[in-house]
Amino acid sequence: MDTHNIVNFCIENSISENNQNIVLEYLKGLNRSGLKEATIRNNEHFLRFLLTHTKTDLDKFTRKDVNDIQDAINDWTKKNGKPASPTSKMQYKITLQRFLKGYGASTNNKELIELAKFGFAKVEGKKLESEDILSEEEVEKIIACCIGIRDKALVAIIYELGARVGEIQNCKIGDVKDHPYGFHITLNGKTGRRQVLLHKYQVYLKQWLVAHPNVNDPKAPLFTTAREYADSSYGKNKKKQGKDEPRAHSPLRTISMNLLLKKAARKAGIKKNVYCHLLRHSQATRLANTMTEQQLKKQMGWAGSSNMAQTYVHLSNPEIDNAVLASYGIRVVQDKEGNKVNRCARCSMPIPSGMRYCDCGMPVTQEAAQDKEMLIADVLTYLQQDPALLAKVSSKIK
């Protein structure tokens, strides 16, 4: 466990030696208990907040001190001046309870354990609606607008695998194995390791592996920074950076992934709030059409007892829509993957994805229909300028 960041923070903010020792021992205890690095990092972020909002020794906290911290959390604003989300505030209060209870138990401080008993309103996270989800067509537009093959492969793989960002950051070159239908990729996430198949967008990964700067190193991150960084220059105190340190390509950070994705989405004209985890939500919704609940849990890396699969089954319920359409005499035909097969309203022939017109000439998209109307209007305007030609055409129509 790296403690340099929290130590430097305490020094720069003149935190008392007692409080510094308390937070260090608490973080080391979390590390010894086997918690994941991301969880420990989140606790460290909270402890920084705690240390900057109290001058009291943490092992001598009173009810007033706990109330003051809760008030500070309620008034919490981020660096951009915007208030923290209700969910973030609730999480900090939960982390405060765990700190008081955990550190109190480890030091036999019954007063701290008692202080952990405070209530607060539970906040439900924002529920995604079906209109928030990205369609496959929208994802492909975003991929097309990504700059460079690394970014295209990143977006495509997060989407097709339904991967968590942390799983992609943990992914190494050695986790990628050839498969007759693409690649098997081993993801290591909060529920353990799982192997998933990359098929549809395998071409992007093939191209990225050709361009990857460390493709022959099995331990190299699958998605790396374009630049090389020294060990102390990436995510650490820049003042400690050494000019002669070994430099290497580092794993892409979450903020970098989200920024490149948002930039590509804007370029593609997508108006939705696009972020990396939305790709996972969108794929889970798509797969809910064709997979059983247990299959979906395995694909997405959810525990067997998790209720997450039900969320996406509810978001994607084509059976009800199809039943309503059937009541009007409309039969929705689906392919083997459960995707709707569009058919021409005139001749009933199937329409491949991306086609604007059927072979019979019927426009099959709204844009094509609008283009046809504009063309008809232009022709009529032209004919009105030539009465003789208009009369000839009219006689042919009759």
UniProtKB/TrEMBL annotation:
PANTHER family: PHAGE INTEGRASE-RELATED, TRANSPOSASE A. InterPro entries: DNA_brk_join_enz, Integrase-like_cat_sf, Integrase_catalytic, Tyrosine_recombinase_XerCD. Residues 129-325 form the Tyr recombinase domain. This is Tyr recombinase domain-containing protein. One of its GO terms (biological process) is DNA integration. GO terms for molecular function: DNA binding. Keywords: DNA recombination. PROSITE patterns: TYR_RECOMBINASE (PS51898). It comes from Methanosarcina mazei.
